[in-house]
Each structure stands twice: as structure tokens, then as C-alpha cells.
Amino acid sequence: MSDADRRFMALALGLAARGLGNVWPNPAVGCVIVNEGRIVGRGWTQPGGRPHAERRALDMAGAAARGATAYVTLEPCSHHGKTPPCSEGLIAAGVARVVSAQEDPDPRVSGRGHAMLRAAGLAVDVGLMEAEARALQAGFLSRITRGRPWLALKLATSFDGRIALANSESQWITSAPARARVHALRARFDAVLVGGGTARADDPLLTVRSFTPLRQPVRVVASAGLDLPRDRLAGSVSEAPLWLVHGPDAGAEARAFWAGIGAELIEVPLAGQGLNVAALSVALGARGLTRVFCEGGGQFAAALMRAGLVDELIGFTAGVALGADARPALGPLGLAHLPDAPRFTLASVETLGGNVLHRWRR
Description:
The chain is α/β, with parallel strands linked by helices. It contains eleven helices and 18 strands. The chain folds into two domains: 3-136, 3-Layer(aba) Sandwich (Cytidine Deaminase, domain 2), CATH 3.40.140; 139-361, Dihydrofolate Reductase, subunit A, CATH 3.40.430.10. The chain is 28% helix and 24% strand.
């Protein structure tokens, strides 16, 4: 494929990224329609998952879609859901060629969209910038193929990996620009997840507040006994969805209170002294979440790490040292041998307000 093909697909990927955090349970897809070297239509999946990217681009292109090439970041859908299949829309519009970054593993599609296009006489090329498309769609692909969302663990720490002093004082270890970036990251994920310990210590809102997002992320709190503060978290249910994951022994009064104010209760089994985090992850995937942004705390993060559920580490590191008596970012992992330690590959690094932001992938 040509340099022009790659350039238009890169544009489609950029458009697709605009949907991250806004479109679950659907994938965030981008589409660019080009006729004789001129862009005549472009679109990305809209908040809530509809309209799809192809439909938006076709509506913009109108009659200019006839004989054009459509660049899409994921195989066009082929099944009838709440909207007609995008493959049918491309065919009806007279598009001559479709360049698709990757096949959709969703069993309802899984090659059928490409086959429908070819059967109608369209030229179909698959695989352009597939690695980039897969990285962008990591959450959707994880939910479809593994039954659970992609999970990123954020750790904001001192240089020596501490998140608070021994007396729990933690405001603020990182800089204001770093904290603003955290809000921007929250907006690109479907949900923000914390453990019950963090909720009890901070009673956090977990909303995006540095700006007004298109869609507030779901707030998920994991607390086996539902013994949670009933102030800010309870008083903000109207601002953003609140899901509480609890164990089978959570009290009836606590269940009634949280359900009564509009929180969604999700029961999962226990594992040892806490919740079964693997079951928690599957439960979130079953409810459509594709990308989850975990903000701790240390014991809960360690449980996720021990279970192999952390796909990405996002670290904000400040140039301050707190010492061994301060609280560590991670609880015990129970490692006996260094080769058993979870390892991640550095994906990116940047300086931000005097801090270092580094991202790692499993």
C-alpha cells in the first residue's frame, strides 16, 4: 500500500482516539473517506457508541462517497443491532475500496464484514497499521478475547516509590500539571477503579474535574463489606455512575443504603481475605467496560498485580524522597525469586511539571 494510504489511515487512527472513554461497550473507531486524493468524509464513533464512525463519514461524504476509498481502523460491522451494518452502508454508498487496519474478533463480525464487502465487488485491503490499531483498541480487544477490560494501574509516587507519609499525609506529592494530566487520563478510560481502603481514607469523588468531559467515567469501588464513607462519594451519584463491587457477606443495611441512592451493586466471591479480583475483572467486562483506570490503593493494587491483571503501568514520579517509614505504592507481592516479579516494557516517558510521567506495558 502507498504512503498516501498510510497517511489517511494515520488520520483515521487519530479520529478513533477521540472516542476513547466515551463509546463503551463499542470500540472507538475512526473512518476517513477519500475520493481522487481529496478527503470527502470523516467520522469517529460517537458518545454511547452510536452513530458508528463509518456512518458519520458517509453522511459527510454524501454522493462523493461513490467510487471512493474508505479507511477504517476496525473491520466494518456486518450484523444488525440497534443500527444497520456499516458494511451495508459502505456498499449502498458506492464505495469502491475499503482499507481496514484489522479484523474484528467479535464473533458477530469476525471476517464477515470484509467478506460482505468483497462479495459486493469492493476491493478490500486488511492490515495497514495493524499494530497501531491494536494498541488503540487494546481495551475492546481485551473484553472480546479475554472477557475482561484492559487495566491500567496509575501510581503517583515519590522518587523512592512511596505514596504517603506514615501518618497518611499525601497532598501533594506530585505537581499540579501532573494532577491535571490524571484527570485527562480518567476521561480516556471507561471507568476509574479504587479499593475500599482508598475510599475509606480519602472519600474520593473520582470524577473528571479539570474540564468537562463528554462522558464521566464510571466510578468503581471494590469493598468486600461495603463499609464505605457516606459523604462525598454517596452525595455525587447524580454526577457520575457509581458501581460498588462487594462480597457475599456485605450487610443488608449497607446494600439497601447504596442501592437506595442509585449505586449499582455487583457481588463477587471472596479470595482469601479480600475480593476475588479476577472475578471482579470479569464482572466489569460482562457489563461492557473495555478500559479501566485503577488508582489504588497499595493493597488492592498488589492484589491486581499478583493476579496478573495489570496490563499497563502509568507512573507519575516526583523528585522527593519520603523514606522507608512512608507508605509504599504497592502492598506485598509475596515474591520468592526475582524472575517471578511482574515485568513491563517502557512505552513512553516525558517530563511534566517537574515530575516524570512514564508508561509501561506488560
